[in-house]
C-alpha cells in the first residue's frame, strides 16, 4: 500500500486540508475587485500575525528572497553591518551581504550554540561614530535547532546604535513570539512553507518607518524586489506584479485558521511540541544538539552516538514514510533534525517518536529503552 508521507522537517511543512481545498479553486483576475478584497484581508491578518502596525508586504519568492529584499532595499554598498553567524543561514546572510558589497563584520558562535548578545553589545558600544548601519540576525537557526536571543540583541542595538534591526524570522514567525512593534524591529522576513502552513512560494517582509527612511538613501539596485513598489500596491489592495493567486487563496484559509486558534495558543502548542520532543530524546539517550535554554520551537536537532544519523533517517523514511531533515555542511551525517513547525499536532509527535523508537531497535541502538520516548513525550503533552 502507498502510505501517506509524514513531513517532520522544517519546511515544507504539512498543509491542512482546508488550505489544499482553498488552493484548488479556480483562479480569478488579480486586478479584479474580488481579489482586492482578498488582499485587504490578507494584509490585515498578516499584521495581526506579525504583531505590528507596520507595512507587511507579500512577495512571490522564498524566505531567502524575502531576506534579500530586506537587505537590498535599505542599505548601500560599503555600509558596515554586523551579521550573526552560528549556522547555515547566518552564514548565508554573510554571503548575501558580501555579494551586495556591504562591509560585513561577523559575530560568530559555534554551530549548536546561541549568539552571545554581549558580543554585539561590545561592538555597538565601541561604535561611537555610528558607522554600523544594520544588524542582520537569524532568529531561529534552522540548521542547528538554536533560537537566538533576539530580544537581548535588539536591546543592545537600541541602547548603543541607530542601526536597523534586520531579522530572518523564517522559522520563528508563527511558532515563537516575534513582537515586532514591542521590540521595534525594522525589517522582518519570513516564508510561506513554514509556520504559515502553505506550500513554498510566498515571502513576507515587515518594514518599519525607520527602515523606509533608510530606503530613501539606499543605493543597491533593485527592480522586482523593490519594496516601495509593493508598499504602493498593498496600500491600494493590489500587487505590483502577477501574484500566485492560488497560494494566496491558501494563505487566506491558513490565516483564518490561525486567528481562530489564537496567537497565544499557537505559541503554546509549538512550545509543548518542542518540550515533548526534547523530553523524548533525553529518555531515549539521544544527545540534543542545542541547549535547553536556546531551543528552537520549529525544530529539534539530535546528535546520536552509537548509531548513524543517516541510517536513522533512511529507515524512518523507508519503513514509516516519515521524513526528517539531515545535517548541513560539516554536520551532514552527524545530526538529524525533527521538525515540529506549523500544522503539527500531538498525534504527529507521538507517531514520530514511536517510529523513531522502532527504528533505533531495528538498528541495534543499545541506549534505547523501548517505550521510554513515547512515555516521556506523552507526559509532557498530557500537561497541556
Automatic annotation (TrEMBL):
Keywords: Aminotransferase, Pyridoxal phosphate, Transferase
Superkingdom of this protein's organism: Bacteria
Keyword Transferase part of the UniProt annotation: yes
Gene Ontology molecular-function annotations: transaminase activity
Entry's transmembrane regions: none
PROSITE patterns in UniProt: AA_TRANSFER_CLASS_5 (PS00595)
Matches recorded under InterPro entries: Aminotrans_V_dom, Aminotrans_V_PyrdxlP_BS, PyrdxlP-dep_Trfase, PyrdxlP-dep_Trfase_major, PyrdxlP-dep_Trfase_small, SP_NH2Trfase/AEP_transaminase
Keyword Transferase annotated: yes
Domain Aminotransferase class V: start-end pairs: 12-328
Names of required cofactors: pyridoxal 5'-phosphate
UniProt xrefs under Pfam families: Aminotran_5 (PF00266)
PANTHER family, alphabetized: ALANINE--GLYOXYLATE AMINOTRANSFERASE, AMINOTRANSFERASE CLASS V
Family per record: Belongs to the class-V pyridoxal-phosphate-dependent aminotransferase family.
Descriptive protein name: Alanine--glyoxylate aminotransferase family protein
Organism per entry: Synechocystis salina LEGE 00031
Amino acid at each position: 500500500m502507498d502510505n501517506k508521507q509524514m513531513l517532520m522537517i522544517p519546511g515544507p511543512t504539512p498543509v491542512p486540508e482546508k488550505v489544499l481545498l482553498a488552493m484548488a479553486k479556480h483562479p480569478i483576475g488579480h486586478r479584479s475587485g474580488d481579489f482586492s478584497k482578498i488582499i485587504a484581508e490578507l494584509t490585515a491578518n498578516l499584521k495581526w500575525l506579525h504583531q505590528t502596525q507596520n507595512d507587511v508586504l507579500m512577495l512571490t519568492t522564498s524566505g531567502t528572497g524575502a531576506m534579500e529584499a530586506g537587505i537590498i532595499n535599505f542599505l548601500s554598498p560599503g555600509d558596515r553591518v554586523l551579521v550573526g553567524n552560528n549556522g547555515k543561514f547566518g552564514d548565508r546572510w554573510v554571503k548575501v551581504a558580501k555579494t551586495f558589497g556591504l562591509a560585513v563584520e561577523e559575530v560568530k558562535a559555534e554551530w549548536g550554540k546561541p549568539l552571545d548578545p554581549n558580543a554585539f553589545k561590545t561592538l555597538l558600544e565601541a561604535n561611537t561614530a555610528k558607522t554600523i548601519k544594520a544588524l542582520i540576525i537569524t532568529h531561529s537557526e534552522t540548521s542547528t535547532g538554536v533560537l537566538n536571543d533576539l530580544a537581548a540583541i535588539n536591546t543592545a542595538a537600541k541602547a548603543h546604535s541607530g542601526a536597523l534591526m534586520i531579522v530572518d524570522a523564517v522559522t520563528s514567525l508563527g511558532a515563537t513570539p516575534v513582537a515586532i512593534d514591542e521590540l521595534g524591529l525594522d525589517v522582518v522576513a519570513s516564508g510561506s512553507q513554514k509556520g504559515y502552513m502553505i506550500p513554498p512560494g510566498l515571502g513576507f517582509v515587515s518594514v518599519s518607518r525607520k527602515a523606509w527612511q533608510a530606503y530613501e538613501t539606499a543605493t543597491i539596485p533593485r527592480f522586482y524586489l523593490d519594496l516601495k513598489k509593493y508598499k504602493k500596491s498593498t496600500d491600494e489592495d493590489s500587487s505590483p506584479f502577477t501574484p500566485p493567486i492560488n497560494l494566496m487563496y491558501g494563505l487566506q484559509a491558513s490565516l483564518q485558521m490561525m486567528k481562530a486558534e489564537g496567537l497565544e495558543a499557537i505559541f503554546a502548542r509549538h512550545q509543548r511540541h518542542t518540550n515533548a520532543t526534547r523530553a523524548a530524546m533525553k529518555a531515549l539517550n539521544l544527545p540534543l544538539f542545542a541547549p535547553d535554554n536556546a531551543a528552537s520551537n520549529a525544530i529539534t536537532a539530535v546528535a546520536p552516538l552509537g548509531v548513524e544519523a543517516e541510517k536513522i533517517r533512511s529507515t524512518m523514511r523507508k519503513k514509516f514514510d516519515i521524513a526528517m531533515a539531515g545535517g548541513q555542511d560539516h554536520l551532514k551525517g552527524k545530526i538529524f533534525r525533527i521538525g515540529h513547525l506549523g500544522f503539527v499536532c500531538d498525534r504527529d509527535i507521538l507517531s514520530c517518536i514511536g517510529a523513531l523508537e522502532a527504528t533505533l531497535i531495528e538498528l541495534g541502538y543499545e541506549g534505547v529503552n523501548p517505550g521510554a520516548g513515547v512515555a516521556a513525550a506523552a507526559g509532557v503533552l498530557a500537561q497541556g
